[in-house]
């Protein structure tokens, strides 16, 4: 998409989680895509108009890039065209379609020169794969926090972009109980946790993500990291390290999977 011109944008409904920007199709159509980016779970498209298109997939959102305009990618990916809410046609004749059955995703436009003040990103913590994230950072960020470590890691102001699956897997690798208070992590536990987070994310990216219910890449391919889960979604099964039965509990409305023997 980078360097391509957006020939047209078709908006098939008035809103997703939030209403679309005013004159959305008019403001995006005809613009050149200067740069694609990402911050946490937000996708960004810098446009030649001086605006940034900010996009979030929510729970079930998916972008699919199909071939030329005659291709009917729906037959290849199994998505329901009734949920195709935004369709972008590029000057290469490729089609980029946003499909979202539950409509928890959203799209917004923000001036590029003011993007540092975009409110949804202002309180974000560091990216886990960036140079700003380390055991030393965790020592500082978790000091004095009384929340369970599982909840703290899902707090986007602590670390940007971590989700439930990868937090469960990282805590298992670091041998840390999800119930342990965050303030007890600094020191040796943080030294185990930081590289565990990085390793889990790197391996998941290499495997194409985790396809549990509806995730697929922009080409329609499924991810395979779910076949490597040590604890996530494995309640009642043996821990791959010690054989103890994996347990499940609910924390902040989210399922947590862990080994009660390995994780302390």
From TrEMBL:
Catalytic activity: 2'-deoxyribonucleotide-(2'-deoxyribose 5'-phosphate)-2'-deoxyribonucleotide-DNA = a 3'-end 2'-deoxyribonucleotide-(2,3-dehydro-2,3-deoxyribose 5'-phosphate)-DNA + a 5'-end 5'-phospho-2'-deoxyribonucleoside-DNA + H(+); Hydrolysis of DNA containing ring-opened 7-methylguanine residues, releasing 2,6-diamino-4-hydroxy-5-(N-methyl)formamidopyrimidine
Needed cofactors: Zn(2+)
One of the GO BP terms on file: base-excision repair
Residues of the FPG-type domain: 230-264
Keywords: DNA damage, DNA repair, DNA-binding, Glycosidase, Hydrolase, Lyase, Metal-binding, Multifunctional enzyme, Zinc, Zinc-finger
InterPro entries per the UniProt record, alphabetical: DNA_glyclase_Znf_dom_DNA_BS (IPR015887), FPG_cat (IPR012319), FPG_Glyclase (IPR020629), FPG_N (IPR035937), H2TH_FPG (IPR015886), Ribosomal_uS13-like_H2TH (IPR010979), Znf_DNA_glyclase/AP_lyase (IPR000214), Znf_FPG/IleRS (IPR010663)
UniProt EC number: 3.2.2.23, 4.2.99.18
Domain Formamidopyrimidine-DNA glycosylase catalytic: from-to ranges: 1-105
A Pfam family: Fapy_DNA_glyco
GO molecular function, a single term: damaged DNA binding
SUPFAM superfamilies referenced in this protein's UniProt entry, alphabetically: Glucocorticoid receptor-like (DNA-binding domain) (SSF57716), N-terminal domain of MutM-like DNA repair proteins (SSF81624), S13-like H2TH domain (SSF46946)
PROSITE patterns: FPG_CAT, ZF_FPG_1, ZF_FPG_2
Subunit comment: Monomer.
Family: Belongs to the FPG family.
Name under which the protein is recorded: Formamidopyrimidine-DNA glycosylase
The organism of origin for this protein: Hyphomonas jannaschiana VP2
